[in-house]
Amino acid sequence: MDIARFIDHSILKPEITEKELEEQIAKCVELKVYAVCVHPYWVKRVVQLAGKELRVCAVISFPFGMDTKEQKIYQCLECVEKGAEELDIVMNFSALRSGQVDYVREELLALARNTEGLVRKVIIETAYLSKEQKILSVELIAESGMEFVKTSTGFFAMGATVEDVRLLLDVSKGRLKVKASGGIKTKEQAIQFLSLGAQRIGTSNTFKILS
Question: I want to staple 55 with a disulfide (CB 3.0 to 4.6 A). Which of 35, 139, 145, 161 is the partner?
Fold first, then answer.
């Protein structure tokens, strides 16, 4: 299994320097990693560095998902203008946990309408959702027409679990792809999630996994 072709390498820590960013991008290109995920601020520079060897993904409303719908749309459009090909968008899981389902539905639909033609991954932050809320999240994302459900930002206590990835795949029934992300530190973990059926792995431990 060519694990590298399933990896979205995350460069999301706020203390990153441009030199460190450049070094990581060069390593990703060398290892033939599929994509790299960065904050909107770095998208333009990463597009220059990646060329055609590496897909560039921007995180949106990261890591809390609590920007307004309009702010999220603006972030998406700005990142696309700078060259991003994929978007990892944090769902407003606070609103979902508060029972504001109509708001979450409309936000996802609006984001989908404004980003057609891109690969969109919606981060639901599974650690904070009940089983029923995870199922509801999948239904809302599928209804919106976006392509992926993603487990976690990796910024909170618990990331991807076998139980959650299996649930998301079962509920999706092929309507959505699943990106396992958060706490994936070893090659064995990556293989396990891919074997379950996850189509993408999000990790900042790429170089260790591929060593």
Answer: 35
pLDDT tens for each residue of 108-121? 999 999 999 999 99
Determine how β-strand 35-38 pairs with β-strand 148-150: unpaired
| 187 noted as active-site residue | no
State the catalytic residue, choosing from 69, 72, 150, 177: 150
Does residue 80 contact residue 115 with C-beta atoms inside 8 Å?
yes
| Catalytic residue, candidates 69, 72, 88, 177 | 88
pTM: predicted TM-score of the whole model, two decimal places: 0.97
Q: Evaluate whether 64 touches 92 at the Cβ level (below 8 Å).
A: no
How would CATH label the architecture of 3-209? Alpha-Beta Barrel (3.20)
Active site residue 179: yes
